[in-house]
Prior knowledge:
Layout: H1 3-16, H2 20-30, E1 48-52, E2 61-67, E3 70-76, H3 89-92, E4 108-110, E5 116-118, H4 121-139, E6 144-148, H5 154-167, E7 173-175, H6 182-192, H7 202-206, E8 209-213, H8 217-220, H9 222-229, E9 236-240, H10 246-250, E10 253-255, H11 262-275, H12 281-287, E11 288-289, H13 291-298, H14 303-310, H15 314-326, E12 330-334, H16 336-339, H17 344-357, E13 367-370, H18 377-383, H19 398-408, H20 423-431, E14 437-441, H21 445-448, H22 452-459, E15 464-469, E16 482-485, E17 491-497, E18 502-508, H23 519-530, H24 542-553, H25 566-572, E19 575-576, E20 606-607, E21 626-631, H26 648-652, E22 659-662, H27 664-670, E23 677-681, E24 686-693, E25 701-705, H28 711-714, E26 731-737
Parallel strand pairs: 6-7, 6-14, 8-9, 8-12, 9-10, 11-20, 12-13, 14-15, 15-16, 21-25, 22-24
Antiparallel strand pairs: 1-2, 2-3, 4-5, 4-16, 17-18, 18-19, 21-26, 22-25, 23-24, 23-26
Helix pairs in contact: 4-23, 5-23, 5-24, 6-17, 11-14, 11-15, 11-17
The structure holds ligand MGD (2 copies), iron/sulfur cluster and molybdenum atom.
Amino acid sequence: MTRTLARWALRAKRLLHTRDGELTRELARTDGGFGLGQVPTRLQPDATTTMVCGFCSTGCGLDVHLKNAEAVNLTPSKNYPVNLGMACPKGWEALTPLRAPDRATTPLLRNARGELTMVDWPRALETFTSRFKAIQAKYGPESVAFLGTGQIPTEELALLGALAKFGMGMVHGDGNTRQCMATAVVAYKEAFGFDAPPYTYQDFELSDVLVFVGANPCIAHPIMWERVCKNRNKPEIIVLDPRGTETAMAATLHVPLRPKSDLVLLYGVAHLLLRYGLVDRAFIEAHTHGFTEFSAHVTKFTPERVCEAAGIKAEVLERLVRSIGEGKRVSFWWTMGVNQSHEGVRVAQAIIDLALLTGNIGRPGTGANSITGQCNAMGSRLFSNTTNLLGGRDFKNPDHRAHVASVLGMDVARIPDKGSLAYDQIIEGILAGKIKGLWIVATNTAHSWINQADLRDTLKRLDFLVVQDMYTTTETVDFAHLLLPAAGWGEKDGTFINSERRIGLIKKVVRAPGQALADFYVFKAVAEAWGCADLFARWSSPEAVFEIMKELSRGQPCDFSGIEGYAQLDALAGVQWPLPAGQSVGRAEERRLFSDGRFFHSDGRARFVFAEPTPLPEATSARFPLLLLTGRGSSAQWHTQTRTGKSAVLRKLHPSMPYVEVSPVDAKALGIGPTDWVQVRSARGVAEAKAFITHVVQPGQVFMPMHHATTNQLTFAAFDPHSRQPAYKACAVRLERLERGVPGTAS
Length: 747
Ligand SMILES: Nc1nc2c(c(=O)[nH]1)N[C@H]1C(S)=C(S)[C@@H](COP(=O)(O)OP(=O)(O)OC[C@H]3O[C@@H](n4cnc5c(=O)[nH]c(N)nc54)[C@H](O)[C@@H]3O)O[C@H]1N2
Ligand SMILES: Nc1nc2c(c(=O)[nH]1)N[C@H]1C(S)=C(S)[C@@H](COP(=O)(O)OP(=O)(O)OC[C@H]3O[C@@H](n4cnc5c(=O)[nH]c(N)nc54)[C@H](O)[C@@H]3O)O[C@H]1N2
Ligand code: SF4
Ligand SMILES: [Mo]
């Protein structure tokens, strides 16, 4: 054990035996070491300080009120440019999950009897290192992999990615952003030359036509939706969603297309725009590539074919086309109804194609805009060192590797010259016996990954699984050999990047419980224990890493080397990338990309990308006649509910039991009444749920929220071939009424 580790072990031991008051004093002295205890150091004891929310990618500013250097409550920030004084229920309740009784407060190691038992940090780190090193020695460095997240600060993601790949010799590491954003990343890269969502939230207010494709912002991005409500242009709001969601109900036009008919429909829209001459020829000529081929491709998508495939009326298609073609400022927004599909990349690109065709990009109120999901999905896309090399670069490009190595002062040989396996391929790798050790950070794989029946069996095959989480009770912890206790949002410093590319601060305003550490300091401790801490000497604090990231971004489309540091981010209420050195920006200023019509391909032109539609991977059949859609259930629930489930206030705002939306037509045919429970069965598993009979879903379709672990017992593991994003939103199921009407009683 190195000297630092020994010193630190001693300190950890002392802390264990001190009472709370003493702990604070001890920590005040030791802050700047490994960050144990997370006392807010840079803030005045009774200050109010603004930081970004830790749930969704909207990135609202929250004013956290401190008393005696500890957060007591919070209110939405009135002068943060994102939310203008508003927050959704999760934001208001953001501090509550920190106080939950199932917080992980010490490392836990599974003993010979299979129970997780408390160990101290030095023992945990020693076990981590010796087990992973032994696996690598036996099966090669690639046999240990990691799975990360879009929910920890960019500085932590960069450190994890760099430590794992440059320090520990891993090649494979992916994250939950694969489940979420991989499709948008590939779509943008191919079309624009860089992963670059072009918009700013003002665009919600400035459009005269807004087209939402597979997005339910009323539930999933409530404050973005509030921005739509501030639009004074009496906009046409069009929602393409098989379900009549809250957003669809608020729209001026709901297009209830058949699931996964988006590609045919969007090509059909392009076809009619061309036929009616409602395209921007000057824009196409000056700024795009591939128009001739694209216009030839879409001629096959006649209105008859489109209406048949999408199950919509000709008048609806006509109005959709006219609105897009005749609108002056048309913006397109897409989320998981697009990304989580077997052909999601091409659907996203069909949306981009429409924006290019009509010249709706780079101007106020326009854009082909992917809305991100998690608070730091955008940080993960640029800096997690998983699919991209740090700063949106390419592992396979020798110049990129050399540049990163020189910025980091590392030997270039440490940087892998190939990309990582994708999430599903890492799981496959476990099955194939190639991946033997896995480190899961801030994602709840055993609930959220597609087709759990297979996944859980696969996790059991690992020689060593480390889970790093805030809580001891997640589904994934059940499979862990070692649990590392993590501090959460509010207990640590760093930055998030929101959907509109705004880099905003999060801050330490609460002390983490027990020996839980900010992920940043867990990674530092791992580096120390592994014996590669020297490589990360400059990575001394989140703010020091921010400086390194600025350097890594220099010259890239995401260049933010012009941001001075955390104090300036605070003063300016966040800054959108890019901001190259030498440029300045005003407080709360909003900026969008491509106002000069130049894209990031070397010729400056955007690409029309398109392909033939492909059939549903799992179509309905006589045995499984209904199509299951999944997604967000309420604005008060977050994913696998490890956090939101801890708030009594939030629990009151959503149904307590798993439910399945069924159309009245199907309910009648199946003899299902409004108080009945049903079994939802797919070829992979069965889930019990309360029937919720509603016109929100169409006949032949059912919907289940993703917030209950049983939903992914049913889903079918299909992936987009280009992004390898799971297609969570269509598989075949059947429904059976539970005889006694109570869950768990059916045979
Ligand atoms: N309250 C809350 N907010 C969240 C989250 C949360 O867990 N809870 N999670 C965050 C994250 S990480 C994400 S990624 C976002 C997701 O945000 P959204 O994507 O808006 O949410 P979803 O409910 O997953 O999916 C949106 C819609 O896609 C529709 N859909 C399904 N299949 C199709 C199809 O074939 N075509 C079309 N056009 N639509 C289809 C579904 O009916 C659903 O209404 O939300 C973020 N915000
Ligand atoms: N059927 C179906 N499945 C889906 C989806 C769907 O629409 N349908 N959507 C998919 C999408 S878009 C997403 S993004 C995923 C989300 O899936 P997950 O990432 O699995 O969901 P979360 O519940 O957010 O899990 C985050 C985990 O990190 C922990 N955590 C929170 N903060 C911290 C921290 O600061 N440090 C550490 N170390 N741990 C922390 C939490 O306790 C929790 O266990 O689900 C996907 N799964
Ligand atoms: S909309 Fe998103 S960022 Fe804003 S308060 Fe709600 S969860 Fe937080
Ligand atoms: Mo997501």
